[in-house]
Design a protein that fits this description.
This protein is an all-alpha fold and 200 residues long. Helix content is 74%, strand content 0%. The chain has nine helices and no strands. It has helices spanning 2-21, 29-36, 40-47, 50-64, 79-99, 105-119, 123-147, 157-177, 184-198. Helix 5 runs antiparallel to helix 9 (184-198). The termini are far apart.
Length: 200
């Protein structure tokens, strides 16, 4: 059982790198076999087909890894604590990238997302749904922070939620082209500046 979990994880991690480097049609079973050292039969057993591998790569390393929706509720009552938790999500993503010799996780994720938009039509809807949930979460955190007196009153919660969300998404996009923007501490400094402008 444990061997199967390790094999499945290895397939996904190697496939992530391959789909980040090549277009979806160019990632063949022979390329996957050579890179993983795992037979096509085992891959089919775990994922049914190449599309199944691709879908799991997207879910595991693009949608789930990039999401802030799993931040514990205990860190959702304070905007300051929530911002720190968002930065920690980025820290973990960078640790994953380093452990797997991925020089630029933002660029790799961008390339996979581009493949997904072309070859997996429902990806756009998944991404839109995820972004809507994240926006609602930012609103919830900001509203709680206003109600607790952490933030000053009279704040436009909707717009402020958009600003905090767009800051993170913008940093990810800038990081595709500028490695300096990948640094989690850079995002922390931006959030600190925004927070200082709205705190009570």
């Amino acid at each position: 059982m444990e061997k199967g979990i390790k094999s499945k994880r290895r397939i996904l991690e190697v496939a992530f790198n391959l789909f980040a480097a090549y277009s979806y049609p160019d990632v063949s079973y022979s390329l996957l076999e050579k890179a993983t050292g795992i037979s096509r039969g085992s891959m089919v057993y775990y994922f049914k087909n190449k599309e199944g591998i691709f879908r799991d790569v997207i879910k595991t390393f693009v949608l789930d890894m990039g999401s802030i929706n799993d931040i514990p509720e205990s860190e959702q009552g304070s905007l300051k604590a929530f911002c720190n938790a968002v930065v920690e999500c980025l820290v973990k993503a960078q640790e994953f990238a380093k452990a797997h010799n991925i020089k630029n996780l933002n660029e790799a994720s961008f390339n996979i997302a581009r493949n997904a938009l072309q070859f997996m039509p429902e990806y756009r809807g998944h991404r839109q749904q995820q972004q809507a949930l994240e926006h609602d979460l930012w609103k919830k955190v900001i509203e709680a922070s206003v109600n607790s007196g952490e933030l000053r009153g009279g704040i436009d919660v909707e717009n402020l939620a958009s600003v905090f969300q767009a800051t993170r998404i913008g940093q990810q996009d800038l990081g595709i082209y500028n490695p300096a923007c990948i640094d989690p501490e850079h995002l922390r400094r931006l959030y600190d500046s925004l927070y200082d402008a709205v705190k009570a």
